[in-house]
Amino acid sequence: MVQFTPERRLHVIVLGNEKGGSGKSTAAMHLIVGLLRDGLRVGAIDLDARQATLSGHLRAREEFARGRGVALPLPLHLAVHRSEADSRREAEADERARFEAAMAGLRASCDVAVIDCPGADTYLSRLGHSHADTLITPINDSFLDFAMLAKVDPEDRRVISPSIYSEMVWEARKQRFQRDRGRIDWIVMRNRLGATEARNKRDVGATLDALARRIGFRTVKGFGERVIFRELYLQGLTLMDVKEAGLPIAFSMSHVAARAEVRTLISAIRHGFGAAQGEGAGEAEPEASSAATGRA
C-alpha cells in the first residue's frame, strides 16, 4: 500500500458537492485532525470563504487551544475569497491567481492539503476540483441526494444519465490529466446511514454501484447522524480531541463508532493514494472513458 510520506509531493484532498447540507465541512474537519494526528503536515483551504463553515471551525479550535492552554494540532489555514472584479474574465483570472498563491504556500510546507468547496457551482469550486488527487463527495443516503450524481428512472431505479455535477467532475478529470497526466481518485461517501429504511439503503447502494462502474468512483461508508458533531463544532473540536481537551464527555459506543468512521475514511484515501501518481486505483484515463459519462 502506498503511504503518505513527507518525501512525496503535496497530496490534494478536495471535499466537493454542489448540494448544501451533505456534511462536507464536517468531513473536512475530521480529515484534517485525523491526518494531523497521524503526524502529517496538513494545510486547509476554505473555498467557501463567505459561508466560512470550515474557517469558523478552525478559528474556534485556535481560540479553544489558546484559552485552555491546550496544545491541539492545527493546520496551516488559508481562505480564498471570490473576486469582486467587474468582468467574468477578470474575476476568474483574479480567483485563479489567489488559488494558485494559496496552493504554492501549502506546497512549500505541507504533506497534504484539504480543500473545502462551496455547495454551489462556482469558478473556485471547479478550479479546486481540477487540482484534486482525491475527490470526496459526501451525499446523504437517499435518492433525493443521489440526484446530485445522476438522473434515475423512478420505476426501476435505472441510471438514465449522469448529472451536471458528474459532468463537471469529468471536465475536472480532463483538465487534471492534460495539465500533469495526474488522475483524480473519486470517492463518494454515503453519509447518515441509518438503521431503518433497509430497502431504501439497498436500492441506493445498488444504484450507486451501477453508476460507480459507469463513471468511475469508489464508495465508502461515511458518518452517521450524531449530535456530538454539532456540539463539538462550537469549540472547534472533533471526537479525536475529547481526551486531550479535557472535556467531561463519557465515551459511548456511538462515539467509538464515529471515530472508526473517520479512520475508515482516511484508510480509503490512503488506499487510493497511488492513483494521482499514475499507479492505478481502478480509474480509466480520461481519453479512454468518454463512453462512461454518456458522451459520444
Secondary-structure topology with pairs:
Blueprint: E1 11-15, H1 24-37, E2 42-46, H2 53-68, E3 76-79, H3 88-107, E4 112-116, H4 123-130, E5 134-140, H5 143-146, E6 150-152, E7 159-162, H6 164-180, E8 185-191, H7 198-215, E9 218-221, H8 227-233, H9 242-245, H10 253-271
Parallel strand pairs: 1-4, 1-5, 2-3, 2-4, 5-8, 8-9
Antiparallel strand pairs: 6-7
Helix pairs in contact: 1-2, 1-10, 3-4, 4-6
Q: Identify the CATH architecture.
A: 3-Layer(aba) Sandwich
Strand arrangement, largest sheet? 3-2-4-1-5-8-9
Total of DSSP H or I helical runs spanning 4+ residues: 10
* Structural class by sheet pairing and helices: alpha/beta
What is the global morphology?
globular
Uncertain segments: 275-296
Quick one: biggest sheet?
7 strands, parallel
This entry's quaternary arrangement is single chain
H and E order: EHEHEHEHEHEEHEHEHHH
Strand content: 5-15%
- How many β-strand stretches? 9
Helix content: 40-55%
- CATH fold category name: Rossmann fold
Description:
Residues 275-296 have low confidence and may be disordered. The chain is α/β, with parallel strands linked by helices. It has helices at residues 24-37, 53-68, 88-107, 123-130, 143-146, 164-180, 198-215, 227-233, 242-245, 253-271, and strands spanning 11-15, 42-46, 76-79, 112-116, 134-140, 150-152, 159-162, 185-191, 218-221. It has a single domain (11-289), classed as Rossmann fold (3-Layer(aba) Sandwich). The longest helix has 20 residues, at 88-107. The strands form two sheets. The protein has a seven-stranded parallel β-sheet, sandwiched between helices. Helix content is 43%, strand content 15%. It contains ten helices and nine strands. A hairpin with a 6-residue loop joins strand 6 (150-152) and strand 7 (159-162).
